[in-house]
Amino acid sequence: MKIVMLGAPGAGKGTQAKMIAAKYQVPHISSGDIFRTNIKNGTELGKKAKEYMDQGLLVPDELTVDLVIDRVSWEDCKNGYILDGFPRTIPQAEALDAALNKDGTADSGLDFAINVDVPDENIVRRMSGRRACLKCGATYHIIYNPSKKGDICEACGDTLVLRDDDKPETVQKRLAVYHEQTQPLIDYYDGQNILKTVDGTQDMNDVFAAIIRILEA
Ligand code: ADP
Ligand code: ADP
Ligand code: ZN
């Protein structure tokens, strides 16, 4: 099962990707988490990526594509994976397709691109309430999905934070970037007949149920 999650920043891609990954026992691969781990560890890649992320811009394809394509070649991906936050541009999608189809077998590509659809009006509220664990990648929401331990991560005990790029000014920029550079992927995957759109404004368990229906149809 090879799945790509599409949707605006804050649409709930990560939340759903983690639930799908847990149910089907495949890795959840978040390009944003990979970058944030690099920033936390002070790597060269992290330093470069942070310059773009802090401004709400995409990290250039040259720094992103090889990183993620290498990750999906790991042994733990042999039964599939959930890609969350990648691809975000047409060239990234083309590079992924090229990597997946390099042996020329018809069934080596993606199974589904799941578009979690949430209008821009809902996004700013979602983002300002998001609380992130930069240690394990868990995500909470102060109203819709609070940690039972307040500002402490239930999974690993680290302190939760409001990401710098989740502040309203940066969210507006990220939404504009999304519409310009990432939204065209909806048509790209529709053209491959693997696009499935779910209403992301529902309760997160209802979104999950809609995704399961698609995957098990
Ligand atoms: P969100 O889950 O809110 O959509 P992510 O954690 O996926 O955010 O990404 C955070 C930031 O990391 C993005 O705003 C962008 O700067 C960078 N980033 C993540 N994935 C990619 C990608 N595939 N291409 C370019 N930049 C990316
Ligand atoms: P993305 O990965 O697309 O950026 P997240 O999964 O991190 O989005 O979700 C953004 C915020 O909205 C988080 O705080 C999350 O807890 C919350 N959230 C996710 N799905 C829903 C939902 N269906 N209803 C309300 N809040 C949600
Ligand atoms: Zn944690």
What is the straight-line distance between the termini? 13 Å
β-strand amount: 5-15%
Strand order of the largest sheet: 2-3-1-4-7
The structural class is alpha/beta
Rg computed from alpha carbons, rounded to a whole number of angstroms:
17 Å
Query: Which small compounds were modeled alongside the protein?
Result: adenosine-5'-diphosphate, zinc ion
Number of strands: 7
Uncertain runs? none
| Number of distinct helices | 9
**Overall outline:** globular
Q: N-to-C SSE series? A: EHEHHHEHEHEEHHEH
Main sheet properties: 5 strands, parallel
Fraction of residues in helix: 40-55%
Q: Please tell me the overall pLDDT.
A: 95
What does this molecule look like?
The structure is a single chain. This protein is α/β, with parallel strands linked by helices and 217 residues long. Helix content is 45%, strand content 13%. The protein has helices spanning 13-24, 31-40, 44-53, 61-71, 90-100, 120-129, 168-182, 184-190, 204-215, and strands at residues 2-6, 28-30, 81-84, 112-117, 130-132, 139-141, 195-199. The strands form 2 sheets. Strands 2-3-1-4-7 form a 5-stranded parallel sheet, with helices on both faces. A two-stranded antiparallel sheet has the order 5-6. Strand 5 and strand 6 (139-141) form a beta hairpin. Helix 1 crosses helix 9 (204-215) and helix 4 (61-71) packs parallel to helix 5. The chain is globular, with a radius of gyration of 17 Å. The relative contact order is 0.19. The model has no long low-confidence stretch (mean pLDDT 95). Zinc ion (ZN) binds at residues 133, 135-136, 138, 153, 155-156, 158. The site of one adenosine-5'-diphosphate has 18 residues, from helix 2 and helix 3.
